[in-house]
């Protein structure tokens, strides 16, 4: 049996608090399926982004055409706003997230572009072997882990804030919220603990784009400045995006497609759908 299979078998039988991992998994799948069905019923199975592009040799006019449908309005409020930018070498119109100063879906002087979500896998679950810096016996409450043989402390932070409500009364006061954060510096945030072979471990989420989100800004600066003028420059600009998306492009003569994302190169023998050891030897 492979290392990945052994690890998966061990984790399936671990316990998370008083609930088995298998039971938690079944509940999570049921919730996801319920959300999918709700979206399907409300939209007639059309709850997804879409795009249609036709090259010039497929149209009556001889010019490329495109219809873009980047659907984001499943929930309220809508996360996109429409605006235009003109001046200082910038000419663009389209939509963006509120607060982001560049068009992320729209058009420039002689091109337009849009996106749909992609399914590339940029997230892995890392299993961290817990340890104590002084060499004492580790427990599931330990906050250090073995990385390349070194007992490495996790980043710890506790946030507290008050959640105000519209129904605040003496009998129903505002609620104080406390959130404790553990983050493995080599991988990402810890979301659970478990045991593997009786030894305590922590489960962390590793995502390739942690702290890399701002790296994508230069792409939209280039588009808004109309530095994208053909498929080649479109590919070059959107190759800088760390987020996982399908991008479509059309100008007066061309259509093009590009799949962006900071995609990890996994270690040999690693199964991308199963938890992986976070000990250093199986890193991306």
Descriptive account of the structure:
The protein is of the alpha+beta class and 284 residues long. The chain contains four helices and 18 strands. Strands 9, 10, 11, 12, 13, 14, 15 and 18 form an eight-stranded mixed β-sheet that branches. Strand 10 and strand 11 form a beta hairpin. The radius of gyration is 24 Å and the shape is globular. The two termini are 22 Å apart. Mean pLDDT is 86; it is low at 1-18.
Key features of this structure:
Glutamine Phosphoribosylpyrophosphate, subunit 1, domain 1; alpha+beta; disordered N terminus; six-stranded antiparallel β-sheet; globular; Penicillin G acylase, beta-roll domain
> What structural class do you assign from the helix and strand content?
alpha+beta
Q: What is the total domain count?
A: 2
Global mean pLDDT: 86
The profile of the biggest β sheet is:
8 strands, mixed
Give the ordered list of helices and strands.
Answer: HEEHEEEEEEEEEEEEEHHEEE
CATH fold descriptor of the largest domain: Glutamine Phosphoribosylpyrophosphate, subunit 1, domain 1
The helix tally amounts to 4
Q: Using the alpha-carbon principal axes, give the shape.
A: globular
**What fraction strand?**
35-45%
Regarding CATH, which class of the largest domain? Alpha Beta
Q: Radius of gyration, Cα only, in angstroms? A: 24 Å
CATH architectural type of the largest domain: 4-Layer Sandwich
End-to-end CA span:
22 Å
